[in-house]
Amino acid sequence: MRTDVLVIGGGQAGLAMGYHLARRGLDHVILDAEERAGAVWLGRWDSLTLFTPARYSALPGMPFPGDPDAYPGKDAMAGYLESYAARFGLPVRLGKRVTLLRGGPDGYVADMDSGARYEARQVVVATGPFQRPSVPRMAQDLAPSILQLHSSEYRGPAQIPAGDVVVVGAGNSGVQIAAELARTHRVHLAVGTRMPRLPDRVLGRSVFWWLERAGLLDVTVESRLGRRMSRADTLIGASPSALRRRGVALRGRVTAAARDALTLAGGGTVTPGAVVWATGFRPDYSWLDVPVLAPAGTPVQRRGVTDAPGLYFLGLPWMHTRGSALAGWVGRDAAYLAGHAASRLTHRAQPATLQRLGDSPPPIRGVR
Predict the structure, then answer these.
(1) 140 CB neighbour count, 10 Å cutoff
(2) 334, 16 in Cβ contact below 8 A?
(3) CATH number, domain at 36?
(4) What is the pTM of this model?
């Protein structure tokens, strides 16, 4: 199959890209490896909530339903993405995993695990920042009797055996998981580098309302302030120290593991029955056979545009601004790339039909 623009990834970034490509009348297809739109969200832990309220969690053209100041859960977000694709009739092809993207005679060729093939003049890689779970090698030194889960595998307290559990990593995921487990377990939170923290609300308003008013969500990564802000992620909401009131024991960085114990910075050990590694993700572009990656495996791009003609990235943290990987702001980068893609095409397809923004959207699964 041939198309003008192929979008790889049907999550929030890919759907925002599809919206802006459709508005410009560009022929495109969105491929996603999952069998349902929003399935990546459904695979996270049961109690996960976004740290952006609903008013700042919507994609272009369609508000998030319900209380705009409420914090959506992961099922609500998955349902919203599914309904968004249906609302605008976006050409999402589910169950299509790309195993190889390479240059072709007129752009790019994407090979599927099914043996099918797509050819496109331009490609947008919108697979997001959560690709391959990152677990330190020391995890292999723990005894098999200790349950180990990456945060991507954690679903809820029922998975964790009775006794002590160590959550390694005090970012947004680690703090949420530690707070939940503290209701049923003795929890140790291993804090490595302390992250900058912002409260989720200030004077009754979402912190993102204040960040927008201050212009901080428009600061680009190429500016002096943007370079400084992008060096560390920001913890939104409860701080690790606030978890002490819930009985969580704060520990130092985990420096070693040996059979039944974890060694901590500054001395001391913990002997847990389970470990949750909230240690993030690393990029995996092993399927990308185009020379656009740095030695560390990260894309070399400027606001999503690479040196490979017609190849773009979308939805990466600090790709352009703080909001580049957030649902409420990814549409800005998508609009920019859609304009870039349109300017490269020598002709345009007949305008795709977008439903009017005032039409009633179909019901959203998981949203009341």
Answers:
(1) 9
(2) yes
(3) 3.50.50.60
(4) 0.90
